[in-house]
TrEMBL record:
Signal peptide (from-to): 1-24
PROSITE patterns: PROKAR_LIPOPROTEIN (PS51257)
Keywords associated with the record: Signal
Record-given protein name: Lipocalin-like domain-containing protein
Domain of life: Bacteria
Organism classification: Bacteria, Pseudomonadati, Bacteroidota, Flavobacteriia, Flavobacteriales
Region (Disordered): 356-377
Amino acid sequence: MKKNIKPFSLFLLGLALLFFSCREEEFELVEGPREEVLQANSTVATLLQRTATNDGSHDNIIDMASCLSVQLPITVIVNGQEINVDSEDDFDTIEDIFDALEDDDDSLEIEFPITVILKDYTEVLIFDADQLEDLTEDCSGENEPDEDIECADIKYPITASIFNSSNEVLDVITFTNDSDLYRFLDGLEDDDIVNLDFPITVVLFDGTEVLAADLDALERILDDASDDCDEDDDNDYDDDDCDSCTTDQLSEVLVGCPDWRVDRLERDDQNLEELYESYLFGFSEDGTLEVFSSTGTLEGTWEAEGSANEITLSINIPDLNDFNASWRVHEIEQEGDAREIDLRIGEDRLEFESICTSDSSGDDSAGDTTDGNGTMDLNSYLTEGSWSVSTYLDNGLDETSDFSAYTFVFEENGVVTADNGSTITGAWAIQESGDKLVLDFGTALPLDEFNDDWDVFLASDTRIELNDTSGGDGMTDTLILTKQ
């Protein structure tokens, strides 16, 4: 039986107007009529289908293919470790294993069979790596243009009224996800007449919600979004780790944490971090920058600008050209007291790391520090409370874990005790007006590593930094003590 369209359409129109009147202040509105006909193979239908296409890039760290995704759960072997991947949270685990060592050869093996989901939401059972490779060989390469629009999402539910001019059948369909909408548009025929209920909300890549009031507005919004962001089609996980980063956050971390060290520096395919392993970088709120090393103090400037994945950190240190550039902020990592800033320019990499304790801040709460020459009252710092080893680098080799169980107490009489369940006694002394700290634990292993006259690089009531440069090969040992 033929149904009456007019009352029903008026009812939908009334609901749309009511919805809009309630939400008007929360959205940007693109004005236009409430209903228009969506035709098969039209530009807006194509853009809408591309937006609803299955995005296969989020799991590229597993399948290295943006045109399909792997149905979870699956089991993979990552650098010899078996990982049960139950959700996207486990992609972080894979990335952490890959990033644990910089110079190793990373490998990931999938335990078959698995099910993959194609761009049109077809599910295919895969029994081996060759079958998966056959399926992915026609995919676009890493970061190459592909069909899906990842810079915009439709906010569901949306509703469509369908009228076929051949049999005059009216139907109303509500779409609640991308797969339903994609399949509907994929089966749309030339003689189908589809009226979408407007307004339709489009969520852009930065979280902005835009209301489209008609098909023309929807077409403009989706077309603009089709090339408006990095669609994260790299073959890693979450290569855009700064989606929510701000310049305020970056500045707060840089200024609030002391003594940034170079964890990684690659320029023009050269690894340079060993050249700067004893350097300490201090970022001030006024945009100035100081670099402390055994050869003295250098001064420079820094500036952060941009937003999200487009934030740049510009560094200018006249005497350190390896650092001077406008670096893109790839990631701001905060885990416990540890902070890491990952900066990139193309293939070049710069990573700073710092231990940012609760006493570390940009004000005086961390206590006075030396000016790089150890001229503060080192004696009063050391004899207050107990200390632990937060860093020990032996000629650049990180041996901190050998001393993680020890607690050190410096007595006024020149005795230092090291306690890891049993007590070892040594001697300490300050020389050259506080510029040197002499430690002597005799033959006790592994504390004999500390037997030396250390240059006092920085000192505060919460942190003592010591360096020793060999007169033979010029290698530098670094010992950092932090107040417990």
